[in-house]
Design a protein that fits this description.
The structure is a homodimer. With about 180 residues, chain A is mainly alpha-helical. The first copy, chain A, contains 7 helices and 4 strands, in the order αβααββαβααα. Chain A has a 3-stranded antiparallel sheet with strand order 1-3-2. In chain A, strand 2 and strand 3 form a beta hairpin. The structure holds a DNA duplex (28 and 28 nucleotides).
DNA sequence: ATCCACATGTAAATGGTTACATGATTGC
DNA sequence: GCAATCATGTAACCATTTACATGTGGAT
């Protein structure tokens, strides 16, 4: 009964069309995982709970001998999804080891801090490349343009920020070298 | 022995000077919590583990009759912190309910999607205000300028992005109204 | 034959928060 | 006298991941 995180991942995924648990997991891994992940250990039990609550309904749609249960939203489920979408409360949780390192970077020499910034930028650039690949493949992945643009813009901003910080640190390092 | 997330929060906090568990928690709540939180339930057990491993050492420094244990980094602890800082691997985990909502916003009417964007922007603006407050208080909180600037710049970028997306949606909504 | 993808599911382990217990000190 | 803060700590709870179990189907 109590709605957890995975609840709305499932309701949202089913709002895009009927799907099996396996297909929901695939959708999540290709898209929402960037800002909201979900594992089989959450998805399958939650599907049964949501069906018991009448928010989704499942139907057996085997492929050959391979069993398969396809779920779709009920009117109640669509209503619950809308209610959540319009609720102004939105949890944000971030665990960013890179920022934590930056926070304590004072124990490093400037050249070492530079190496740290460089590795942080490399990670953002890798993330950016993955998102650009999603963009290149177009609508095929069902990634809404709005969210994709947000992600790309955000990564670009962070790459730029790292570059600027690196340049500042280089100047500082050079100034100290001259001074010594 | 195995290093978890809270390990480096503690080592990092102690790199800024000797501190008690209570003071570490205060530091975290005022600063790193934006990108890495920690609770007493993690901090106190970890302090004992780190002391057993020889990375920190604690000394009883009561204030009056109030018992108090102040820890400081050992050379091994400082070394472990440096090794972690220079390790290019950095975990990033994000759970952003706002982006998840945006991802499934297609089930909403344009005017409703606008309300959603508005609430998302409001949250970022609130976060921005908190960071500006930290900035106004200056170095007192021990927030490194680099990380603070990153946070402020990032929030500003996100607020701007929301504003731009809102303007686009308004145009779309108006266009649909004219068409109908 | 073997491997990978499809498909559903669960048990154990992990990681973390919350709530509580205890007691001293400070300010109103 | 009371509430808030200082200070340490633990147990219960919660969410989530990981690893496994089971079986089908298609490709090499």
């Amino acid at each position: 009964m109590p709605a957890s995180g995975v609840t709305y991942v499932i309701l949202g995924a089913l709002s895009l069309g009927p799907r099996s648990g396996y297909e929901i997991k695939q959708l999540v891994d290709r898209s929402t995982r960037f800002f909201w992940a979900a594992s089989y250990g959450q998805i399958y039990p939650e599907l049964r709970r949501l069906e018991a609550d009448g928010l989704i309904s499942g139907a057996s749609e085997p492929r050959g001998e391979r069993r398969r249960i396809v779920y779709q939203l009920t009117p109640d489920g669509r209503e619950a999804l809308r209610d959540w979408l319009l609720d102004p409360e939105s949890l944000i949780e971030i665990r960013d080891e890179g920022l934590l390192k930056l926070f304590f970077a004072d124990v490093l020499e400037p050249s070492e801090a530079l190496a740290l910034l460089h590795s942080l930028r490399a990670r953002r650039e890798a993330a950016l490349a993955r998102l650009r690949e999603v963009e290149r493949q177009g609508k095929a992945l069902g990634f809404p343009a709005l969210v994709l643009e947000f992600g790309i813009g955000l990564q670009e901003w962070m790459v730029e920020w790292c570059s600027a910080a690196e340049r500042r640190l280089e100047q500082k390092r050079d100034a100290e070298e001259v001074a010594s």
